[in-house]
């Protein structure tokens, strides 16, 4: 009886550990793709049990990542699909770097996300329609990049069906205009987009 319980406990612990390592692995996969001239990612040691002691990373009481704070860090390189593997991430703050490439659609799996701040980088390509899944998102700041295409309807609908308060897509190469319909709930939401088509 007793040994069975112990085996179960060890098994449960193993599951917990694997989960933590997975999140660390996801961030480490990103690190390997980044150029980091200021060594801000020096503490990101993938051999640790979990990433919760890494600088610029915040975890909840379950050792699951809730914040990544790397604004104005001098980083260049891409955003990677593995960033979608952080189920409890609430704040992805990577503004004012030199990040390039497209926005991975896998970010649509970050269903706990409150703030997606990718502004002032060199991101290109279109805004993934799947970001319309992010019902908890309150701040979506994509301004000052090189994004093209139109804002997907699914993303605009976050204003009506989600919690979005600010969407700044200004200073990109987006086409089209967004009309300010005055519907209930819309007045508190700001869309900031360039007038030029
Ligand atoms: C930690 O995990 C437990 C069990 O899965 C859950 O009930 C609890 O809400 C979690 N706490 C946080 C801060 O996510
Ligand atoms: C989200 O995660 C699920 C399961 O982990 C996966 O099947 C799906 O492809 C992911 N979606 C995106 C957009 O990455
Ligand atoms: C929106 O983006 C533009 C361009 O980056 C910036 O100048 C402006 O301050 C931003 N506005 C808000 C409210 O974030
Ligand atoms: C929207 O309409 C309501 C009712 O007519 C009005 O009080 C409010 O000022 C309007 N809001 C905006 C942003 O135009």
In short:
This protein has 197 residues and is of the alpha/beta class. The chain contains 3 helices and 12 strands, in the order αβββββββββααβββ.
Strand and helix layout:
Layout (H helix, E strand, L loop, with lengths): L1 H30 L25 E3 L5 E5 L6 E3 L12 E3 L4 E4 L13 E3 L4 E4 L13 E3 L4 E4 L3 H4 L1 H4 L4 E3 L4 E2 L15 E3 L5
Parallel strand pairs: 2-4, 3-5, 4-6, 5-7, 6-8, 7-9, 8-10, 9-11, 10-12
Antiparallel strand pairs: 1-2
Task: Please supply descriptive tags for the structure shown above.
alpha/beta; Leucine-rich repeat, LRR (right-handed beta-alpha superhelix); five-stranded parallel β-sheet; globular; binds 2-acetamido-2-deoxy-beta-D-glucopyranose
Which word captures the global form? globular
How far is the first residue's CA from the last residue's CA?
71 Å
The CATH topology is: Leucine-rich repeat, LRR (right-handed beta-alpha superhelix)
| Structure class | alpha/beta
User: Percent of residues in helical segments?
Assistant: 10-25%
Strand sequence of the main sheet, in spatial order?
Answer: 1-2-4-6-8-10-12
Name given to the CATH homologous superfamily: Ribonuclease Inhibitor
Q: What is the class in the CATH system?
A: Alpha Beta
Give the number of DSSP strands.
12
CATH architectural type: Alpha-Beta Horseshoe
Low-pLDDT residue spans: 184-189
Bound molecules: 2-acetamido-2-deoxy-beta-D-glucopyranose
- Count of domains: 1
Radius of gyration: 19 Å
Whole-number mean pLDDT: 85
Order of helix and strand elements from N to C terminus: HEEEEEEEEEHHEEE
What fraction of residues sit in β-strands?
15-25%
Put simply, the count of helices is 3
Biggest sheet architecture: 7 strands, mixed
Protein name: Leucine-rich repeat-containing N-terminal plant-type domain-containing protein
Keywords: Leucine-rich repeat, Repeat, Signal
Pfam families: LRR_8 (PF13855), LRRNT_2 (PF08263)
InterPro entries: Leu-rich_rpt, LRR_dom_sf, LRR_N_plant-typ
